[in-house]
Amino acid sequence: MPRQISYRWRLRELMAVRGMFTVAELMPHLTERGITLSSSQVHRLVSGTPERLSLPVLATLCDILDCTPADLIATSAQNLPARRAAGEEAPINLAARRPTRVRLMPEG
How does pLDDT run across 2-35, given as a tens digit for each residue? Predict the structure, then answer.
């Protein structure tokens, strides 16, 4: 059965828990650990959901926030309904195909 995987980036939430509310507060922590990102790159990390993230940056964020990658990235998965193949017919509903009895009434 196919599954749909989704994730939620929680960097802003974890920063707030630790009293950091702006990009400017996060940047010195990144720099002192050897991660050099522009303020716009850090802003995109904080305000958006990254599709690609280097492992050194992820490890540094975990160190700064004293958390694990699982804390930063909340994942969820759900089963999707099975799709029919092209040309495959839906199951036949016999109740819908069963003839109904007709009651004839005399005219008049």
Answer: 888 899 999 999 999 999 999 999 999 999 999 9
Which of 77-93 are b and which e, b meaning 16 or more Cβ less than 10 Å from the residue's Cβ? eeeeeeeeeeeeeeeee
Name the residue among 40, 41, 73, 49 with its Cα closest to residue 59. Answer: 73
